[in-house]
Structure prediction request, 122 residues.
Amino acid sequence: MKVISPRTHGYLDFLTVVIFLLAPTLLGLGELPAILAYSLAVVHLIVTLVSDFPFGVVKLIPFTIHGWIERMVGPLLIAIPFILDFSNEEVARNFYIAMGIIIIVVGMLTDYQAEVRDGKIK
Prediction:
């Protein structure tokens, strides 16, 4: 069941950017996890602003592709503490795993086909 509209997804995207920006300070992340969080905030903001949905400014990336990007990012966030060898930093590891799970769940609940099916974005 796809209960998250493109507009609601946009709000969640901006919330994700803010979370990635605040996490290093609020959680006291180490150097590598902090740099990664700031980088992910910038990348997530860029992808949001260039996606073709209500909050897109440039609208270069179809919203369906935006969804596929997030389908890859969610699992990658879960794996990244192990790939980049900071899984021993409990707070950082748990933050990235939680963010990965949240992105996966939001992706499963988002109607990425709304614009294609309806001919416009809700």
